[in-house]
């Protein structure tokens, strides 16, 4: 496991999240690149509006839904990817969805553009093209146009028919370096990110000094109400209706609470949180150091 000193010496937020991935045991090369793609593409949909009128941009972006690492079950996979595209394992994921995008490069869309981003870092271009082709067909049958983007480790070629956009991860990385995220607000889809969610839990616990885990994750008055940015959207609702709205949120009892408890337990296992003499949980020294490192990036913005 990566040493904490190496993680808190990260010089940017994405580096901190990557190090925290390793501490939590969820690290992967694709996960790293998915964050880069999410931030870079999000900036193209939001940056011009944010510069011109932050209040207006905030209102426009409030209707956009971003989902990352969406787990597909066997039944969903079979419906989306018809034979001979068999599901390679018990579960698989959709990398990144931008739904109801309000603008692209500053041009208003009326919230009618939807993008699916496939991050393919292993050179399996044919498989990625098959996936996006099947996804586009599946949603088009439900009267929803989903524009595909494939992110690759290098610039291979362009689709002459402009039906699929191919992007080089190195170009997206350069764009992120020009405008690096300073807080989790700058990174879309953080509720799908264990490391980002862990930072929000650390921040919440620090504000309250100590917390009861049952109230925190299993009661609505805990994180559900006090930190709504850790809620995920209900992907099943999207599949049923072919439309996704910001109020389409995951089920509290069967989805939210079990997921947050798993993250909380992993944070305890990795000694970022510990139980005090009163049976409540508080930040450990490592937890405080991680949170301080995260908050320092936001201060650089001031």
List keywords for this structure.
alpha/beta, 50% helix, 13 helices, 302 residues, 2 domains, Arc Repressor Mutant, subunit A
Could you state the oligomeric state of the chains shown?
single chain
Helices and strands, in N-to-C order? HHHHEHEEHEEHHHHHHEEH
Mean pLDDT: 86
C-alpha end-to-end distance: 33 Å
Task: Characterize this entry briefly.
The protein is an alpha/beta fold and 302 residues long.
How would you portray this structure in words?
This protein has helices at 4-8, 13-24, 29-52, 54-61, 74-80, 125-140, 169-178, 194-208, 213-218, 220-226, 235-241, 252-269, 285-299, and strands spanning 65-72, 92-104, 107-119, 147-152, 165-168, 273-275, 281-283. With 302 residues, the chain is of the alpha/beta class. It has two domains: 28-181, no CATH class; 190-299, Winged helix-like DNA-binding domain superfamily/Winged helix DNA-binding domain (Arc Repressor Mutant, subunit A). The strands form two sheets. A five-stranded mixed sheet has the order 1-2-3-4-5, sandwiched between helices. It has a two-stranded antiparallel sheet with strand order 6-7. Helix 6 (125-140) links the parallel strand 3 (107-119) and strand 4 (147-152). The model has no long low-confidence stretch (mean pLDDT 86).
List the SSEs and their pairings.
Blueprint: H1 4-8, H2 13-24, H3 29-52, H4 54-61, E1 65-72, H5 74-80, E2 92-104, E3 107-119, H6 125-140, E4 147-152, E5 165-168, H7 169-178, H8 194-208, H9 213-218, H10 220-226, H11 235-241, H12 252-269, E6 273-275, E7 281-283, H13 285-299
Helix pairs in contact: 3-4, 3-7, 8-13
């Amino acid at each position: 496991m990566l040493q904490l000193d190496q993680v808190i010496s990260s010089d940017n937020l994405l580096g901190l999240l990557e190090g925290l991935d390793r501490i939590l045991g969820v690290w992967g090369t694709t996960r790293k690149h998915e964050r880069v793609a999410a931030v870079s593409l999000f900036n193209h949909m939001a940056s011009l509006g944010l510069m011109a009128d932050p209040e207006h941009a905030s209102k426009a972006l409030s209707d956009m839904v971003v989902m990352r690492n969406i787990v597909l079950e066997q039944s969903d996979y079979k419906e989306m990817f018809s034979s001979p595209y068999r599901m390679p394992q018990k579960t698989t994921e959709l990398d990144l969805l931008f739904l109801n995008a309000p603008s692209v490069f500053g041009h208003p869309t009326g919230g009618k553009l939807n993008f699916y981003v496939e991050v393919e870092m292993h050179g399996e271009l044919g498989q990625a093209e098959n996936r996006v082709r099947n996804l586009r067909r599946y949603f088009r049958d439900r009267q929803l146009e989903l524009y595909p983007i494939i992110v690759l480790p290098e610039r291979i070629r362009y689709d002459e028919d402009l039906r699929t956009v191919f992007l080089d991860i190195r170009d997206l990385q350069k764009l992120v370096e020009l405008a690096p995220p300073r807080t989790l607000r700058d990174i879309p889809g953080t509720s799908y990110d264990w490391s980002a969610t862990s930072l929000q839990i650390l921040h919440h616990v620090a504000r309250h000094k100590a917390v009861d885990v049952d109230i925190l994750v299993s009661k609505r008055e805990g994180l559900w109400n006090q930190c709504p940015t850790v809620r995920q959207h209900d992907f099943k609702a999207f599949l049923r209706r072919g439309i996704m709205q910001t109020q389409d949120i995951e089920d509290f009892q069967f989805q939210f609470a079990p997921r947050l408890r798993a993250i909380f337990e992993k944070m305890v296992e990795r000694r970022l949180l510990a139980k005090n003499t009163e049976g409540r949980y508080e930040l450990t020294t490592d937890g405080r150091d991680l949170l301080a490192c995260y908050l320092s990036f936001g201060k650089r913005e001031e």
